[in-house]
Every structure is written in structure tokens, then in C-alpha cells.
Amino acid sequence: MNVTEIGMKKSRKYCSDNDYCRRASAAHEGYDRVLTEKRITENNITDADRDANGLLEQILESANLNKAYKQVKKNKGSHGVDGMEVEHLLQHLQDNGDELKKAILDGKYRPQPVRRVEIPKDNGKKRQLGIPTVVDRMVQQGIQQILSPIYEATFSESSYGFRPKRSAHDALKKCKEYANEGYTYVVDMDLEKFFDTVSQSKMIEILSRTIKDGRVISLIHKYLIG
Fold it and tell me: Which residue among 11, 56, 121, 190 is the one 20 to 30 A from 209 at the CA level?
């Protein structure tokens, strides 16, 4: 796949703490230091309760972030604007993980800009993608792991994309069932530039109906505007 890079920016170092892992063996399994949970306040972009349900603390729990780290490592992928590759993520977390958690809890964390690249489409045009840094990919994965069970129950049974324990094979199986029932037409649609044009304010409004921890809403909003 041909990829054209649009721009790069230098990283911002957000911490200097060098005592992240409790055990040296964590270097092979991820990191698992637990910070003391604390109630905080921050300037927020939503009227939702700032710490209702302690959702942010759940996202930042050691087990959840360790799982997120392993998923990012498994997915591999390219570097972000800071140039950090996936294989360097663990060492970075060992050196800076406590500071990262504290910055998020204090509402001071600012995600890095995404690295813009272009990939060719089948029609000869190009699609622009934004690649987050590996650190931001881990934080986003941690958010997704906590929110996914909350929203899964509300999704359509006919939806198969980007959902746990569902795949393109499941969608094809359902299509075959419909064909056996006598359905003969298929509608193929592609919403042009959907992710570029979706209303962020509307998305935040919808998320706020369920997510009552305003700190989580604020963190998601920071990623949306990044």
C-alpha cells in the first residue's frame, strides 16, 4: 500500500517520572502500577456530572490499560507525529506512565495531533487518514474497552462493523439467510467523507446522555478536535 505523508510534528514530553513499573517482569507483560484513585474537578465542555460513576478511574485502572497496551502492540501500525514506534511504547510507559495517568486525571492531558497521510482508493482518488501516536492509541483503546459494553446493548442486530465477536463472515452468513428467505436485492451505499463531516457537537450530546462522568466526555472531545 502506497502512503503519502502529509505532515509531522515533534512530540511534547508530559512527564519525567522514571518509576512506573513495580516489577521488572512487567516489561514482558505490560505495565501494572495502580495509582490511588482521587476525586478531582476540571473545566469541562459538558454539564454532565464530573465524576459520576468514576468512569475515568475505570479507564485508567491498571488491568484495563495493560489490556489496551497489549492490543496496541498486537495491532502494530505506523508511528504518529512523535515518531514513536509500537515497540518503544512499553519503555515510554515505564518511564512516563504515572505522569500520563496524573495528567489525564487532572484534566491537563492534551492528545498529540494526528499524523496525516494519504492512501490510494480503488477509484484512483486518495483517502486522507489521521494516525494517532501510539500513546494516544493506547488511551483510546482503554476508553473503547470500558465504553463498548455500555453501548453494545443499544446497537442494531444488523450491525457487524467494528463490533466485538462479529465479523464480515457473520454478515455474509446473515446475507445468505436473507437470500434463502427470498430476498433478491442488495443496497450498497457509502457515505462520502462521513468521518470528516459528522457533527462533533451532536456526538458529544449523544454520548453525554449515557456517560455521566464529564471528565470522560472532555477527554473524548479532545480527541475529536485533535
Answer: 190
Q: What is the pTM of this model?
A: 0.73
Distance CA 34, CA 20 (A): 9
Task: Indicate left, alpha or beta for 212 from its phi (over 0: left) and psi (-120 to 50: alpha).
Answer: alpha
Cell of 33: 502500577
Q: Are 165 and 149 in contact (CB under 8 A)?
A: no
**Of 161, 163, 189, 158, the residue nearest 175 (C-alpha):** 158
State how far the Cα of 208 lies from the Cα of 203, in Å rounded to an integer. Answer: 9
Does an H or E element contain 174, and which? helix 168-180
Q: In this predicted model, what pLDDT tens digit does every residue of 180-210 receive, in sequence order?
A: 999 999 998 888 878 888 899 999 999 999 9
CA–CA gap between residue 149 and residue 80 (Å, rounded): 28
Instruction: Kindly report the length of the chain.
Output: 226
Q: Grid coordinates standing for 21?
A: 513499573
Which residues share a beta bridge with 81? none
